[in-house]
Prior knowledge:
Blueprint lengths: L5 H14 L8 H25 L3 H47 L1 H14 L4 H12 L2 H12 L9 H26 L2 H26 L4 H25 L7
Amino acid sequence: MEPITQDQLINEVLHHIQTDPHKRASGLSDFILGAQDGLVNVLGVVLGIAAATSDARIVLVAGLATTFAESISMGAVAYTTTLADADLYQSEREREYRHLIETPNLEIKEVRDIYAGKGFKGELLDRIVSTITANQDVWVAVMMAEEHQLAPVDRKTAIRAALVVGLSAIIGSLVPLLPFMFLSVSTSMWLAVLVTALVLFIIGAYKARVTVGKPMKSGLEMAVIGTVSALAGYLVGFILKVPPVP
Length: 246
């Protein structure tokens, strides 16, 4: 293999950082969770109410009540879930430290089995095992990642997750409500479905662009699944439709 020149190294660094950088999570999953949940749930509610009554005021009140209850609930779930993940990681990490003291030979065998399963063997495998088990912190970190498939969770991110999920749920929830503020109930129902499907498509396509997958396919999947789920609300409202007052 020819030695790499400084120019080649600089070009590769620039490509790695600017042209094709690694994508960070940066709350993307939290945003999608909140926005999709807000869009689908509130659309289902407003369609159900709109199918049962022609009073736009009732539709808006029900939609807004669902919006804020949903956003607070989703934010709280994101907060407690993040804390639970952090507690699980810490609990398993402490257990691994105890196992290193109480059953060191078994833990060494587990490290050997993990890397033997990756194709390492002979002297190289022995060196890998001895290097990892020479430092308890490294040893535990390897076992957490390789054996338990767990990554460290910063408890400070719980508040950020709650805010991202809660705010995105509010933003998503307002989308299907907007038509009812300006148009008749019958017109707003189908416009809300179309607008919500379009927003879901955009979210799905964006997710595929920053992660993996085909934007068109991902967008269509999210739009179809979300819209069909919301139409269940319309079906309930249609079946239980309130008869007009004589």
